[in-house]
Amino acid sequence: MPANWIQNNRHRIRRVAGRWWNNQNIARMAARVRRHAEIEEDAQPVIFFNASTRLEAMSLNAAFSLLSSWAVQLAGVPVVHFVCENGMSRCVLGTNRDDPLAEPPCWRCILQSRATYAYANRRKFTFVYDAQLSKILQPMQLAELMEFEHNGLPLGSLVLPALRWVLRRNTLADDQATCYLYRHYILSANHVAQEFSALLDETNPRAVVVFNGQFYPEATARLIAMRRGLPVFSHEVGLRPFTAYFTRGEATAYPLAVPDDFELDEKQSQRLDAYLAQRFQGNFSMAGIRFWSDMRSLSPEFLERASHFKQIVPVFTNVIFDTSQSHANVIYPDMFAWLDEVHQVMAANPETLFVLRAHPDESRPGKQSRESVADWVRKCGVADLPNVLFVDSTEPFSSYELIQRSKFVMIYNSTIGLEASIMGAAVLSAGKARFTQLSTVFLPATHEEYRRQLDTFLAAETIPVPPEFSRNARRFLYYQLYRSSLRNARRFLYYQLYRSSLPFGDYLEDDRIWRGFVRMKRFGWKDLHPSSSPTMKVIVDGILNCEDFLLRDESILD
């Protein structure tokens, strides 16, 4: 082999070799689990399904699913993996948004699946074209496709979050390419429903575990199983590196019940403060992605400009996938409808400096939003207002310093709202977020109430006390509200970070070649057994006994 070819293809060789090495590790561990698992006779299986986690190599969520399935087997319960092998006409990760006609790279995914599930009980499914359904869908345009139902399944709404994520747009274009993908997603979701229904008939499972529950393959399976009364659990990445979040609810909504009597002790407070100190400097990652290599302080130019205004109000936006889900949009139909109104508010309040901040994930390579806040800014001309500063997603601008200098903070549903609340800021939210389950931010119930509260906040010298606390003295209660919001935010964030974010660091490490991917560490099969691993015990108890997925043994965090 010519030396120059090797030199020019070093990265590709490393990638292939790394994937082979990781797959060998997976195969060895899968064989050991199969050998040592003492499966109970006639036990009902648990079905695992995660077709939207990867094409090749090993993503975080694919690893969470596989490791959890091994732990379930070691607990004596059989597992069936529902595995896609050319099972969809167009899948989520295999869609080419620039060429909707391009078929997904199924061969790459199939090779990885066969390596991952070499010793597993798997039920593969292959796509079968439904000519009759296709004929029904063919004349339909976007609005009809969005409302489409078939055999009692709301297929149009089931595939919509995935389509928006793939196209990186909340507002879909009613054009040939979009409708083409929409039809193929519906055809594929319908086929997943048929195949998954047949699997449920064959196996009579005790539970189902899916990735995310929002992308259409898993969302369809989740709905089918729930209609049969089966427990369905979904999972997503946690806040800390190599952590997973499992729930019986919607993982992306992050339902989390924090007990009223839970208070942070001194050690827990120190643990949380150490994390926050790093995060407020930009030293954090999500799903294996580090957004900021450095965090710049507010410039003298910004401070000089701000000095000419009465007050500063940051406006933090979010990315399409987090804002286009139905559970987020409780006041406005979508984030851009909110921004249109915020534009009007900005123009009507020239004494306020509004700092409009685009989310850092908006321009991440490979996941760039195609309906972005930056595009909205250019289109509407909001940055031309003398009292508006637009901060693009690529700018390492310190949001935390900005919050410290602000009168209050406006968000749609970004996590920065929770952090701002922890810092003591008043936060006005226009959408439902993970942390709005507790009184951590101001979340009005209606659009009218939101506008009234926003106008009041802008005009007031101090932020008024919410009505539900009006029975106490204004200044005292305002202090208590601040302390209550701060306390709730800290309690909620601690639960997110250390109780509900289950650590997998004993089993996983960075891929070192593919950003955001992982590989297996060397460990023994006993390390996965629920009797040996607090993480696996929580997951197995949650799946098999419907207990909460909360870590109670915090000694493994030290």
Count of discrete domains = 2
Helix vs. strand class:
alpha/beta
Q: What is the makeup of the main sheet? A: 7 strands, mixed
Rough outline: globular
Order of the strands making up the biggest sheet: 3-2-1-4-5-6-14
Strand content: 5-15%
Distance, first to last CA: 49 Å
Rounded mean pLDDT is: 86
Share of helix, binned: 40-55%
Which spans of ≥5 residues are poorly predicted at pLDDT below 50?
A: 283-292, 465-484
- Overall strand count: 16
Count of helical stretches = 19
Global Rg: 25 Å
Concise description?
The protein is of the alpha/beta class and 558 residues long. The protein contains 19 helices and 16 strands.
Can you put this structure into words, describing what you see?
- This protein has 558 residues and is an alpha/beta fold.
- Helix 16 (416-422) packs across helix 18.
- The chain is 42% helix and 11% strand.
- Mean pLDDT is 86; it is low at 283-292 and 465-484.
Keywords:
alpha/beta, 2 domains, five-stranded parallel beta sheet, 42% helix, 11% strand
Task: Map the helices and strands.
Blueprint: H1 3-8, H2 10-36, E1 46-49, H3 60-74, E2 79-84, H4 106-116, E3 122-125, H5 131-137, H6 142-146, H7 155-167, H8 176-203, E4 207-211, H9 216-227, E5 232-237, E6 243-247, H10 266-279, E7 285-286, E8 289-290, H11 300-306, E9 311-316, H12 320-323, H13 335-348, E10 352-357, H14 373-380, E11 388-391, H15 399-404, E12 409-411, H16 416-422, E13 427-429, H17 447-459, H18 474-499, E14 502-503, E15 508-510, E16 518-520, H19 534-545
Parallel strand pairs: 1-2, 1-4, 2-3, 4-5, 9-10, 9-12, 10-11, 12-13
Antiparallel strand pairs: 5-6, 6-14, 7-8, 15-16
Helix pairs in contact: 2-3, 7-8, 7-9, 8-9, 16-18
